[in-house]
Each structure stands twice: as structure tokens, then as C-alpha cells.
Amino acid sequence: MRKVSNPAVLRRRIAASRRGGATVGFVPTMGALHAGHLSLAAYAREETDVVVMSVFVNPTQFGPGEDLERYPRDVERDAGLARASGVDLLFLPSVATMYPAGPDGQAVWIDPGPMAHHLEGAARPGHFRGVATVVVKLLNLVQPDRVYFGQKDIQQALVVERVLRELAYGVEMRIVPTEREADGLALSSRNVYLDGEERREAAALFASLTLARESIAAGERDAGTIERAMLALIARDAPRAVVEYVTVAGLADLVPIAGAIDRDAVISLAVRFGTTRLIDNIVVRFTNGKPGFS
Ligand code: AMP
């Protein structure tokens, strides 16, 4: 595995692989790698010849008062994990490389449109503009055949997929299933912020999604009823959690569903323990009226 910070060197190395006929898979991350990130790398390893991973804590997707400064950073640890996961090129750009005019001086942005206004976008204004812009920059540098995103951040994956489609990027998007701890908590770089009691209570997030899945499987279709049952479970089992939202939304547009779930949907939530913000989701797709879950 090679570590590269200089974009010209990155381009040269990738171009050399391409001349030899290799396909390129790309895994963008913000580092603090865990088994979720490594599972994206494993899919890329399986499906493409050269695996490129980036580690870049993107300042423009953090809002004022969010955890940009304290976001966990450990490049040496990340490099060891990436190497062990079969990453060929680890791209570690500087802020100056990604934002030549500085994050505050950036004048050109990708506006991902209405899909970015709901759910996380409503809670974190400007977040997806920052995500879409940095992903497009990274894709321009790496020019992969496939790019790998986690279902953990489902709205991010769907927003980026839409951007790539509408801006005619010839990149194939892969959405990889969420890696979880034994008690169901989705792996996240932010889980390290949780204290012991918060960590125990955090299992309620996936338990509430599991409850939603079971009730839909049993025939329940009313979005409000499902959301209320999830909220009640979280209130009971995670009294330290402050819920930002628990929402059933259309998978195609992420618009919250009021009333009956009559189309493919994503059930997602955001919860805070102190200043630590956790998100999770499941997706339900209907085939001839029968629900399937991922
Ligand atoms: P991040 O470093 O948090 O920006 O995440 C980088 C990529 O890893 C994103 O595509 C995430 O959706 C994905 N990811 C994060 N956590 C998980 C997880 N628990 N399972 C699968 N993918 C994940």
C-alpha cells in the first residue's frame, strides 16, 4: 500500500494502473477507521483491481458547533488497518489541496437539491452541500469505476447517487450494508465519545428499528404508529437519549411519509447522547405488497 498526499502523484499512479487495464474502486472516508469502513474496502477489493481509499476530515460538511475539531484522527492506525484490508493507495490530501482558497473561500459548490433538505439535511443545514462538493472533488481526482458508500449514512449515499446521475458521472455507486456491534449498534467513528451508560443505552436505536421492521412485517403500515412505537421504545430503554427525529420517508425522494407507507421507504433516526450525535436506518422495499428489509 502507498500513502499519497499529492494529487498529481495520485493521478499518475492511477493512470498507470488504468493503462494496464485495471479497474479502480474508491472508498471515501473521514478516517478513524472501523469494521464498517473496512467492509467497504473488502467489497472494493472483491470487485475492482485497484482499491483507493481516501481519509479526509472534510471541514465543509461540519456545521458551526459540530465536532470538526474533536473528530478522531489517527493516520498511522488508519494506514495499518487500510493496508491489512487490501487498500492499494491511501489518499491523504491536506485541507489546502482540497480547498485551494480555504474552506471559507470556496466559491463553487454542488447543490444536491431537495433530497438534501429532509432528515439529516433539515437537522444539519449545508451538510450535504459540503458532502456533495467534496465527493465530486475526490471523484475528479481519483476517477474510479466504482465508488463505495455505507447504508449507515443512507441519505448521504442517496444524495451522492443522485448527484452522480444528474451530473453524468460515469461512476457506478455501491451501497454496502451497515456493520453493527453485537447488540446492534451501528459502527461509527463517533461511538468512542459515548460513556459506558450511554453506550449501553445506544443499543435502543437498532432495537427501535428492529421493532419497526417487525411491525411492518406483521402488517402495520401507518407511519405515525410506527414512529410513535419507536419513540416509546427509545424513551423506555435510553432515557439519556435526546431524539432529533424518527422518520419514515420515501426511499426515492426522502420526503417524510404521513399516513400509510405505500412505497419503498427508509426508516431513519438521529439521537443525541450529550453532544454525541448518532444516526441509523433500515430500508423497506415492497415486492407485490410484501416487504423486504435491508
Ligand atoms: P465516514 O468516515 O463516517 O465519513 O464514513 C465513510 C464511509 O463509511 C461512508 O460511506 C459511511 O457510510 C461508511 N460507514 C460508516 N459506518 C459504517 C458502518 N457501520 N457500516 C458500513 N459502512 C459504514
Structure description:
The chain is an alpha/beta fold and 294 residues long. The protein is 37% helix and 21% strand. It has a 6-stranded parallel β-sheet with strand order 1-4-3-2-5-6, sandwiched between helices. Helix 6 crosses helix 7 and helix 9 (203-217) runs antiparallel to helix 10 (223-237). Adenosine monophosphate binds at residues 29-30, 36-37, 39-40, 149-150, 152-153, 176, 178-179, 186-189.
Structural class: alpha/beta
Structural shape: globular
- Overall radius of gyration: 19 Å
Element-by-element helix/strand order: EHEHEHEHHHEHEHHHEEEE
Major β-sheet profile: 6 strands, parallel
Strand % is 15-25%
Mean pLDDT over the full residue set: 97
What are the low-pLDDT stretches, counting only 5+ consecutive residues below 50? none
Strand order of the largest sheet: 1-4-3-2-5-6
Number of strands: 10
Q: What is the percent of helical residues? A: 25-40%
Write the layout of secondary structure elements.
Layout: E1 2-4, H1 7-19, E2 24-29, H2 35-47, E3 50-55, H3 75-84, E4 89-91, H4 95-98, H5 120-123, H6 127-142, E5 146-150, H7 154-166, E6 172-176, H8 196-201, H9 203-217, H10 223-237, E7 242-250, E8 265-273, E9 276-287, E10 290-293
Parallel strand pairs: 1-4, 2-3, 2-5, 3-4, 5-6
Antiparallel strand pairs: 7-8, 8-9, 9-10
Helix pairs in contact: 6-7, 9-10
Bound molecules: adenosine monophosphate.
Adenosine monophosphate binds next to helix 2 and strand 5.
